[in-house]
Design brief:
The chain is of the alpha/beta class. The strands form ten sheets. A seven-stranded mixed β-sheet has the order 3-2-1-4-5-7-6, sandwiched between helices. Strand 1, helix 2 and strand 2 form a beta-alpha-beta unit. The longest helix has 19 residues. The protein starts with 7 loop residues before the first helix and ends with a helix.
């Protein structure tokens, strides 16, 4: 990836990092769990190799920026963590564990994840990164915290004890060696006996920011979680971090006590450390190239060092980069566009520019995936770009771009990853890796490179190569609802990525679902052209659910991929290409309201699901909240977290209640903050939730219309819910409200605030913490039947 040469301060910091041999791994459960202050201080203040292992990618969290949830949110939050690490200097690892939503019991968490699988991943990361010290963010003792948090600590401790055992996960030992860290600690918030203290103060030597401010800026990258406000000034002074030793060697003064963090830990490495010390002491920030002769001597000594330690191999790569930066050697490979189809030619435009006057020879460009190289030698001259052009075929069997952990369907708790070497990585490796080889003063430098397009990504960087099909397929909705035995049209949009894309399209259905015609032909003349094809799908006579796929045959190859782009201003564009799928639900569904107004909150797709129920849905803005505008609707539905995104609804909220008083129905989905205080109805929102999606449901008001009209709701309607029953249930409400349902997690008291209905004036106001925003897109039949009753109240 091309970037401007780092500043002299950054080069010097990289030199100190090269000299430092200590390593620390921080372990927690989610993006935003990490202690960014500690990571920034250890990585940028103490120069340790510092990494954060987040067991999950945050897939089950909330999103205050948009409608991306589940695996799409996990992809966004992965990039937020990488953006945070670019600021605080840490590295990033993950396991295959899925954030399946809030868990109150770590044992439930381990059961859903599959304890042994995730434990093996933590062991793998320890054996890969080889930390001297492991730090757990959370306690191993259950408390009033997320079950994922406790599970991360339990797994961290067990993995610490197993990573050095050659009998533990022996399949890993084909490529990794056992590794035993010195100790594992808990990063406590308080003190107590046997507590170590670390005083953090001072400034980052590269940016000049205090470590506190740098940590705040790092944490502010978690914008989908609402942490953007952490990026302001402040965070100076001294902060004390506390630790307790959980296992391993005792320590009383320092977390690295008894660990040799110098090159002396490597047999024959003492001279390397001495040379690095001399280079650092003589480094000239006005002329980094002056260090090149000494760096080349160091490079030679390091190449001669007989060591199979993976850390030494990593340091060799790091030293190559340091020499590159001292030379002001800028390397890039450009491609005309970011996206290519397997089998197409890649027009590769390689350039190399050196800014120092040191003689540099560009001796080769290697393409490891093709096992070929261009080896014509080019002499570089200061400030003159040298060019090497080539055209290489992208192999026809190159997989389409898709985050590796999403390439295959997993379980509710664990991603399915075929290639063990990918486990732990934050993102996919480059599609088409390149190695640029240079000779300087008799030493060989190998610089990693990859093709990048000139088009800028969301954060102003160039896009790397993505592999796409010649056509993408998209169903016009996530879910299609059918009456049993009925037929209805299903539309699929085909988009051409390349000109002259012709072929045939077919649907792939279970045997009891019928489709006509069997296949259809299409022809798209230009890239970007679209065509919508309609099939008639007939549901079976009984109530059931199914997934219908689609595939297009183009030039003898078959493609069945949708295309999704995750776009946020603070992270690079992310391309997802999952299989094109439609969730089909055959169910008996009656509904009495047809004209629905939808006022979006923080983002969900419930409005599209209501359209599938046969309703006409109009998206509203706060300016539409007037009595004259609202009177046209049978019901108004508000999106999740309305009061998070519209803090001052003011007259609009009054208009909603006037609409209810005059006979309308309002269904308000869950909020995290109270927003009804200035209305005729009051309730208090809590953090109470029911995380067990299978929790039995008690009907508190069995005669209420919500449970009877127009659909008779039974306990069967609460089968097959996903992730949770609901969240942020109110725990207090006034006498207007009638609680309809009660449910609870195992061992807890029943919660009655999940569905509250108030008769007000001539109309009805519904507040629900039930997770309809998850159930409706997932095609849960009972959720549709219950929601139909809510919007049909009074009709």
């Amino acid at each position: 990836m091309h970037a401007e040469s780092p500043s002299p301060a950054a080069i010097l910091q990289d030199l100190r990092s090269f000299r430092e041999m200590g390593s620390v791994l921080y372990v927690a459960a989610h993006p935003d769990d990490e202690n960014t202050l500690l990571i920034a201080y250890l990585a940028r203040g103490k120069d340790y190799r510092t990494a954060y292992l987040s067991l999950t990618r945050g897939d089950g969290g909330q999103n205050v920026l948009g409608p991306d949830f589940d695996e799409k949110l996990g992809v966004a939050r992965t990039q937020e963590l990488l953006a945070a690490r670019r600021l605080d200097g840490g590295r990033q690892f993950f396991t295959r564990a899925i954030d399946f939503g809030f868990s109150k019991d770590y044992r439930e968490t381990l059961n859903i994840w599959g304890k042994d699988e995730v434990l093996s991943d933590v062991v793998r990361v320890i054996r890969t990164f080889r930390p001297d010290v492991v730090i757990n963010r959370f306690s191993t003792q259950p408390g009033g915290t997320h079950g994922h948090h406790t599970a991360s600590a339990v797994l961290g401790l067990e993995a610490f004890k197993l990573a050095g055992d050659p009998n533990a996960y022996p399949d890993q030992l084909k490529t990794l060696a056992p590794w035993q860290p010195k100790r594992i600690l808990a990063n406590n918030r308080g003190g107590g006996e046997n507590t170590l203290h670390l005083e953090i103060s001072g400034n980052d030597p590269v940016s000049g920011l205090s470590f506190g401010e740098l940590a705040n800026r790092s944490r502010a990258m978690h914008k989908t979680q609402g942490f953007g406000g952490f990026g302001g000034r402040g965070g100076g002074g001294t902060v004390t971090e506390s630790f307790q030793v959980l296992a391993g060697a005792p320590a009383t003064n320092d977390i690295f006590e008894g660990v040799d963090t110098t090159w002396g830990r490597i047999p024959g490495g003492a001279e390397i450390g001495k040379l690095a010390d001399e280079i650092i002491s003589q480094f000239d920030a006005q002329n980094p190239a002056a260090s090149v002769p000494a760096l080349l001597k160091l490079h030679h000594e390091l190449a001669e060092l007989k060591s199979s330690d993976p850390l030494v191999a990593e340091k060799r790569e790091q030293l190559d980069r340091i020499i590159q930066h001292c030379l002001g050697l800028e390397v890039q490979t450009s491609i005309p566009q970011a996206e290519y189809v397997p089998g197409e030619k890649l027009p590769l435009h390689h350039t190399a520019t050196v800014h120092a006057t040191v003689p540099v020879r560009w001796v080769a460009t290697r393409y490891p995936s093709l096992k070929t190289e261009l080896n014509k030698t080019i002499e570089l001259h200061a400030d003159q770009a040298a060019v090497r052009d080539s055209e290489q075929a992208l192999p026809a069997n190159t997989p389409l771009t898709q985050p590796y952990w999403l390439s295959k369907e997993g379980t509710p708790g664990l991603f399915n990853v075929d290639d063990p070497s990918l486990i732990g990585r934050p993102e996919n490796p480059p599609v088409f890796p390149i190695q640029q080889v240079f000779e300087v003063g008799g030493e060989t430098l190998v610089i990693a490179d990859q093709p990048m397009s000139p088009s800028e990504n969301e954060i102003g960087t160039r896009r790397r190569l993505d592999v796409i099909p010649p056509v993408s397929l998209h169903f016009n909705s996530e879910v299609a609802l059918f009456a049993p035995g009925s037929a209805q049209p299903v539309d699929i949009e085909i988009t051409a990525a390349r000109p002259d894309s012709s072929g045939t399209l077919q649907l792939e259905t279970p045997a009891d679902w019928k489709v006509t015609p069997v296949k259809q032909s299409f022809s798209l003349a230009k890239a970007g052209d679209k065509i919508k094809l309609t099939f008639r799908v007939t549901a079976p006579a009984e109530s059931t659910t199914a997934k219908i796929g689609a595939s297009a045959e183009v030039r003898g190859a078959r493609y069945g991929n949708d295309r999704m782009e995750i776009r946020y201003a603070h992270i690079p564009l992310q391309l997802l290409q999952p299989p094109a799928r439609l969730k089909c639900v055959s169910l008996e569904l009656a509904i009495h309201s047809r004209k629905i107004g939808y006022l979006p909150g923080a983002g969900d797709t419930v409005d599209a699901c209501i359209r599938q129920m046969g309703c006409a849905v109009t998206e509203l803005t706060t300016n539409d909240l007037t009595p004259e505008r609202l009177k046209d609707f049978d019901a108004i539905v508000t999106g999740v977290r309305l009061f998070d995104t519209h803090r001052n609804l003011g007259p609009g909220l009054s208009a909603l209640f006037a609409y209810v008083e005059n006979g309308g129905t309002v269904v308000m989905q869950y909020n995290r903050v109270d927003g009804l205080q200035a209305t005729p109805l009051t309730l208090k929102i809590s953090q109470e939730r029911v995380t067990d999606e299978h929790a039995p449901v008690t009907f508190l008001a069995p005669e209420n219309p919500v449970l009877n009209t127009p659909n008779k709701i039974t306990s069967a309607d609460f089968n097959d819910w996903v992730q949770e029953r609901g969240t942020y249930f109110p725990n207090q409400w006034d006498d207007h409200f009638t609680p309809i349902l009660a449910c609870n997690d195992p061992g807890e008291a029943q919660l009655k605030g999940g569905l509250l209905v108030a008769d007000y004036g001539k109309g009805h106001f519904v507040y629900t913490g039930l997770a309809f925003f998850r159930q409706l897109p997932a095609g849960v039949p009972g959720a549709y039947r219950l929601f139909a009753n809510l919007i049909s109240l009074g009709k």
